[in-house]
């Protein structure tokens, strides 16, 4: 069986360098790390993770806790984290909280027990006391996509207010006045900030904020289906919808199809989140596209900075905010002036 000495000799590096690659205790250049891993693979060398933990060292494992593994949004985010981690000699354990705070806490406890090197978390809510468990075990953590109420935790986010504001201003510029919104739970910063962007756009355009046109719920497909039905059943239903994420958009599209409504002739749509099907001719959905891969890769880079052997007192909390972009397609195009007068009067 190959030993760490055999790997060091094959890679042309010191034993301590091989140890750093597999333990993740110090930075090793991607080129050297790749050479060490190639040598280990050729020799079928497997480091003893259990022995590392018994010695009190951190593993070379990063925990990644997301909220909905079925959401295509997280595919690119996970890839961004994994690519950066792999280049630096780390592996990623993926956990799915399913938007459940109790399940989230259980996974946090598992990651702490496994003594992961660090963690990247999409929090289920802004106030999550279980996050403090990472501090107790001296495990660096970075929040991604959503803020968490903890001044010691870095965050990598998208400007949700800006994206939502731009989406609604786009609908207003195309002549829509009665605009409904279905966004995520207000216990999450994404749900709350997207509602704030919606309100700002109305205010800037001199349009009233009508609470009857506002719906919130979990970022899930069934939310879009049920709450779209509620909005359609209003005495004065909206003529356009701003949808809080891609899964809500799927549910909304399903309900609009069930009601036999055409897009955008009967209902204009803009959704937060790009989706694999948004550009298809059958749907052609206008979206607020997030730089999702960059969200993941930036969060991983920030976590790796935290893992460097620098005194914690030398770090200051960072909040990195990325900019989304409006992708205009046919679901939000202007309708005829006659139709607008009839529906938006």
Task: Give the topology, please.
Elements: H1 4-11, H2 15-23, H3 30-43, H4 49-54, E1 61-66, H5 73-87, E2 91-96, H6 101-113, E3 118-121, H7 132-136, E4 141-144, E5 154-158, H8 160-173, E6 179-183, H9 189-204, E7 214-216, H10 221-232, E8 240-243, H11 246-258, E9 268-272, E10 286-289, H12 292-306, E11 319-322, E12 325-327, H13 337-344
Parallel strand pairs: 1-2, 1-3, 3-4, 4-5, 5-11, 6-7, 6-8, 8-9, 9-10
Antiparallel strand pairs: 10-12
Describe the structure.
The structure is a single chain. This protein has helices at residues 4-11, 15-23, 30-43, 49-54, 73-87, 101-113, 132-136, 160-173, 189-204, 221-232, 246-258, 292-306, 337-344, and strands spanning 61-66, 91-96, 118-121, 141-144, 154-158, 179-183, 214-216, 240-243, 268-272, 286-289, 319-322, 325-327. With 345 residues, the chain is an alpha/beta fold. The strands form two sheets. The protein has a six-stranded parallel sheet with strand order 2-1-3-4-5-11, sandwiched between helices. Helix 5 links the parallel strand 1 (61-66) and strand 2. Helix 1 (4-11) packs across helix 2, helix 1 crosses helix 3 and helix 5 (73-87) packs parallel to helix 12 (292-306).
